[in-house]
Design brief:
Distance between the termini: 45 Å
Shape: globular
Family: Belongs to the enoyl-CoA hydratase/isomerase family.
GO biological process, one term: fatty acid metabolic process
Function: May play a role in fatty acid biosynthesis and insulin sensitivity.
Radius of gyration: 20 Å
CATH topology of the largest domain: 2-enoyl-CoA Hydratase, Chain A, domain 1
Protein name: Enoyl-CoA hydratase domain-containing protein 3, mitochondrial
Low-confidence stretches: 1-6
Keywords: Fatty acid metabolism, Lipid metabolism, Transit peptide
Largest sheet: 6 strands, mixed
CATH class of the largest domain: Alpha Beta
Length: 270
């Protein structure tokens, strides 16, 4: 293999597993980790595998290099403007694939924690917003800059509007300005900011806490959280009550409540 091809020989996505935690690392630092066709496929494949892997209790999503993710690969997308339909079919396909991958994160049984260093822009910011939790190094910055180039960040908007207040989401979308880590915490995009370079370690600490819980209970709770959020108040309470009844009858709840009453550590089934 000649030297020209060596950078592309590395996997687009790295996976490391330790103590029930799967760490996925976007691995195209020289290209700013874009959500290209290959990166989307690698992420989707990884989430499909993890969803079926009972040994994984939590997932960390990190990135190599100084940029978390610059979002869609405009260099890959723009040539399709020369297609007979001016790229309509291609744009619809790539956006559909990206949206499906973001929804895989929400549907995943295991919680996903973004560990962000550097910048997360456009669909890269959407990726952070789609994760269940997010930790940022103090130098991290977030942005939905599409408005600057005549392309409103409408798909990132879906994730942003479900995580931030309406005013904060619209501020990011309309202004397209970089939001520092501390401000991202205030806005609700990120759970906490830590010293630069420590996001992965803090995400690992949170993942370890989650991994110590009953996996069946965490799975039930995550699914119910996203289901009830899309409902009206009464429907949400009805749904959550039904979920809690089933949860109360589950083996791990019986064990956990018994352990609490007997002042001992619970032994989870999974």
């Amino acid at each position: 293999m000649n030297a020209h091809h060596k950078p592309d020989a590395a996997p687009f996505l790295l996976r490391g597993d330790e103590a029930g935690i799967a760490t996925l690392t976007l691995n195209r630092p020289q290209a700013r980790n874009p959500l290209s066709e290959a990166m989307l496929a690698a992420l989707s494949e990884a989430f499909t595998a993890i969803a079926a892997d009972r040994s994984v209790k939590a997932v960390i999503l990190a990135a190599a290099g100084p940029v978390f993710s610059a979002g869609h690969d405009l260099k890959e997308m723009t040539p399709h403007r020369a297609d007979p339909d001016r790229g309509r079919a291609y744009f619809a396909d790539i956006l559909g694939r990206c949206s499906a991958m973001m929804q895989q994160i929400t549907a995943l049984p295991q919680p996903v924690i973004a560990a962000v260093e550097g910048t997360a822009t456009a669909a890269g910011c959407q990726l952070v917003a789609s994760c269940d939790l997010a930790v940022a190094g103090s130098d991290a910055r977030f942005c939905t800059p599409g408005v600057h180039i005549g392309l409103f960040c409408s798909t990132p908007m879906v994730a942003l509007s479900r995580n931030l207040s309406a005013k904060h989401a619209m501020e990011m979308l309309l202004l397209g300005e970089m939001v520092p880590a501390a401000e991202a915490v205030r806005m609700g995009l990120v759970n906490r900011a830590v010293p630069a370079g420590e996001a992965l370690a803090e995400a690992g600490r949170l993942a370890a806490i989650i991994a110590s819980k009953s996996a069946a209970t965490v799975k039930t709770g995550k699914r119910a959280f996203y289901e009830q959020r899309e409902m009206g108040l009464k429907a949400a309470y009805d749904h959550a009550s039904a979920v809690m009844v089933e949860n109360m009858l589950a083996r791990d709840a019986e064990e956990g409540i018994g352990a609490f009453m007997e002042k001992r550590a619970p032994i989870w089934e999974s």
